[in-house]
């Protein structure tokens, strides 16, 4: 007898009925009790559940109807036999999968390869979406770019003094930092260790605190202040100094000068659209060129970033930029500065996937690839699932004899369903473990391929 009672008290009554009476008595008496219970509910009797419980107790307390005490646990209720049946289903599923080893391997391996491919793609997508999101206050940081009308070219870097002038005039700006990338790599040398390093450039003293770039060694407030200093990555420190402390040690930039290590960067907690292995202080770049650099308003060279105050509005700041361009470029051209160049603000977190401007520091990603690969991952997962279901269905046709025997010996429909769902679940878990094995073995090669 089954009865989907909505009332907790009535469900308790059903459990007692199954526990105290034999199965034949339940099938004989149970439907009548359910009909009486439903009739009371239709009459909006609020005590229908309690009355049902009393009816059950009045029946099970009759000695002639109760099953013998020594048989109470011979046919336990579903609640009592759950763990026992689960163990039985599991053992039968394992036995069947071991018996059909070829089918088990093909189905689990096919699902595993599909899952591994899907997970690899999702790892790539996750990495693309994670660019620059680990920085503190990343949503308040913007890059200032210059869109020149006459040449129809939109530059990622701007003139060296533009950002400094903007910080002075715009109260919405909390802080600012600039970065001048090296045009080509520099060759660093220490003893016999000599390598070309391509990711680096000159940065303002605020660069380390503006972005979330913690140091293993050194003081972030002073590491980029003194000319002749350099901040290097942890990987560079290991290459040139091994287990020694790199702080205060010297490196030779072949053909240029010697520099002193003033800081060692920790490994970043997320990818950054400005990959840096070394940073020179901006004071080194400005040395002897202060007058020229202070007037190079249209020399597109410095990647410039601003951080807004919490209370500032990006819309109000953008509305001030045309007038700012007019004042900044006044007297340099025969027309207003706002008709020569339009300064624009790019959100930091959108640069990697949405920006393809002139003179980007490194080639950025593309949101179209993220969407495409995401769809490919979904398609691969669907194909793997369909293949898994087709193979399982094909095998099910050969188990009709087994189903017939089980039903002959009293197996119910829900028990067969649970058995076969359990086997599918076990096979799915095996496929997942295979996929994790693939990922663990191929992840280094995947990282090398995708960069």
Walkthrough of the structure:
It is a single chain. With 451 residues, this protein is an alpha+beta fold. The chain contains 15 helices and 13 strands. The chain has helices spanning 8-20, 23-42, 48-60, 78-99, 101-129, 160-169, 207-210, 234-241, 282-286, 290-293, 314-328, 351-354, 367-396, 400-408, 413-450, and strands at 141-148, 153-155, 173-181, 186-190, 193-197, 200-203, 215-217, 229-233, 250-253, 257-265, 278-281, 303-308, 341-347. Strands 1, 2, 3, 4, 5, 6, 7, 8, 9, 10, 11, 12 and 13 form a 13-stranded mixed β-sheet that branches. A hairpin with a 3-residue loop joins strand 9 and strand 10 (257-265). Helix 4 packs across helix 15 and helix 5 runs antiparallel to helix 13. The chain starts with 7 loop residues before the first helix and ends with a helix.
List keywords for this structure.
single chain; 451 residues; alpha+beta; 13-stranded mixed beta sheet; 15 helices; 13 strands; elongated
List the helices and strands and how they pair.
Layout: H1 8-20, H2 23-42, H3 48-60, H4 78-99, H5 101-129, E1 141-148, E2 153-155, H6 160-169, E3 173-181, E4 186-190, E5 193-197, E6 200-203, H7 207-210, E7 215-217, E8 229-233, H8 234-241, E9 250-253, E10 257-265, E11 278-281, H9 282-286, H10 290-293, E12 303-308, H11 314-328, E13 341-347, H12 351-354, H13 367-396, H14 400-408, H15 413-450
Parallel strand pairs: 6-11, 8-10
Antiparallel strand pairs: 1-2, 1-12, 1-13, 3-6, 3-12, 4-5, 4-9, 7-10, 8-11, 9-10
Helix pairs in contact: 1-3, 2-3, 4-15, 5-13, 5-15
């Amino acid at each position: 007898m089954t009865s989907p009672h909505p009332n907790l008290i009535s469900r308790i009554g059903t459990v007692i009925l199954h526990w105290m009476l034999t199965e034949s008595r339940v099938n004989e008496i149970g439907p009548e009790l359910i009909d009486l219970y439903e009739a009371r509910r239709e009459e909006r009797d609020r005590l229908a559940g309690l009355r049902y419980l009393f009816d059950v107790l009045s029946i099970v307390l009759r000695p002639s109807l109760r099953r013998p005490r020594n048989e109470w646990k011979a046919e336990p209720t579903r609640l009592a036999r759950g763990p026992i049946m689960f163990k039985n289903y599991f053992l039968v599923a394992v036995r069947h999968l071991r018996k059909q080893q070829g089918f088990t391997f093909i189905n689990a391996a096919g699902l595993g390869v599909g899952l591994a491919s899907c997970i690899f793609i999702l790892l790539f997508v996750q990495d693309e979406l994670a660019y620059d999101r680990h920085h503190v206050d990343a949503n308040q940081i913007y890059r200032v770019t210059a869109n020149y009308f006459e040449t129809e070219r939109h530059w990622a870097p701007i003139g060296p003094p533009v950002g400094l002038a903007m910080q002075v005039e715009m109260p919405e700006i909390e802080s600012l930092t600039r970065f001048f990338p090296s045009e080509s790599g520099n060759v660093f040398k220490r003893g016999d260790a000599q390598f070309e390093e391509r990711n680096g450039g000159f940065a303002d003293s605020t660069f380390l605190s503006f972005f979330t770039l913690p140091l293993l060694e050194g003081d972030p407030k002073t590491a980029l202040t003194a000319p002749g200093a350099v901040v290097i990555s942890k990987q560079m420190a290991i290459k040139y100094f091994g287990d020694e402390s790199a702080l205060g040690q010297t490196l030779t930039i072949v053909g240029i000068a010697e520099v002193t290590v003033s800081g060692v960067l920790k490994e970043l907690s997320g990818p950054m659209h400005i990959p840096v292995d070394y940073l020179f202080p901006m004071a080194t770049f400005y040395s002897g060129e202060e007058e020229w650099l202070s007037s190079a308003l249209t020399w597109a060279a410095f990647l410039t970033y601003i951080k807004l105050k919490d209370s500032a509005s990006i819309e109000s700041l953008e509305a001030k930029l045309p007038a700012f361009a007019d004042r900044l470029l006044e007297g340099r051209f025969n027309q207003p500065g706002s008709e020569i160049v339009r300064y624009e603000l790019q959100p930091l977190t959108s640069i990697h996937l949405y920006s393809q401007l002139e003179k980007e520091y490194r080639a950025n990603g593309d949101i179209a690839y993220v969407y495409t690969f995401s769809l490919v991952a979904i398609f691969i997962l669907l194909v793997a699932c369909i293949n898994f279901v087709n193979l399982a269905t094909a095998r099910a046709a050969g188990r009709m004899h087994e189903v017939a025997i089980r039903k002959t010996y009293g197996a119910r429909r829900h028990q067969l369903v649970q058995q076969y769902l359990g086997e599918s679940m076990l096979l799915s878990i095996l496929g997942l473990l295979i996929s994790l094995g693939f990922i663990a073995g191929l992840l280094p090669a995947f990282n090398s391929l995708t960069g």
